[in-house]
Amino acid sequence: MRIGYTLMTEQAGPNDLVRFAAEAEHAGFDFEVMSDHYSPWLAEQGHSPYAWSVLGAVTQSTERAELMTFVTCPTMRYHPAVVAQKAATVQALSGGRFTLGLGAGENLNEHVVGRGWPPANVRHDMLAEAVQIIGGLFDGGYFDYEGKHFRVDSAKLWDLPEKRTPIGIAVSGSQSVKRFAPVADAMIAVEPKVELAQEWDATKLGPPSRKIAQLPVSWGPDREAAVKRAHEQFRWFAGGWKVNAELPGPSGFAGATQFVREDDVAGSIACGPDVEPIVEGVREFEKAGFTDVALIQIGGDQQDGFLDFAEKELLPALRE
Length: 320
What we know:
single chain; alpha/beta; TIM Barrel; eight-stranded parallel barrel; 43% helix; 17% strand; globular; oxidoreductase; oxidoreductase activity; EC 1.-.-.-; Luciferase-like_dom
């Protein structure tokens, strides 16, 4: 099982993210994923630099670790033809270490371009068209497309990397698995549901593919402070993705989670100095059939301590 580190754009600025990427590779993480947001979930997080500029710098500050977007929405803020160009460029800069993680997006990030926020079924239709366009451009040569939601007129990627960029797609249930497993190289999910992994492999009808998850933790020497930090910056997580996809901004998430207690957050996120609760969280994904888990350390000012802890204690424990 591969263990990854999350470069969370919502809680750190661009220069720090580039530094964290190099330190995470040095600590021994196998891969690094980056969120792609226009806004933080909560104002307390305080950041949201442009992920693709940061990724370009990260390709040069790292040498070994695989890189990935977790995830990019290729339908509203970005036209899928532009996403294909960005992904091909990052793949070339990284020497073939990049995976393009895609998802149907959240209102939080996509409403900023003033096109409204379509219902879930329309968002999935748009994502399906976007995947066709991106794949067509990855094939090389001139590409044309006319669908219900997108049109591409004689587009070509002039700098294709030597290694084709793999595509991972975020799913949450049977409907999205059946739709996207046949066209993706990897599955992305945030809950340890064994049925997701089993149906994904059955739908792909080939050798088992990567199944990549993400797990938030709030490491720190003082458990009480770690719980408080997790509540302050990560209580938005309690709403679940059906709610999280619909709210339009940090104030909406603050209002929706105003009654979430510190104990509620501590019950679902490993907090404090101990290794074992984090190992148990990762083990749940392993039991569910996932091949990769990217950890999120909550708190932009806590990364240096966490990375030192990961190198000396956490990663050795996980690999046992």
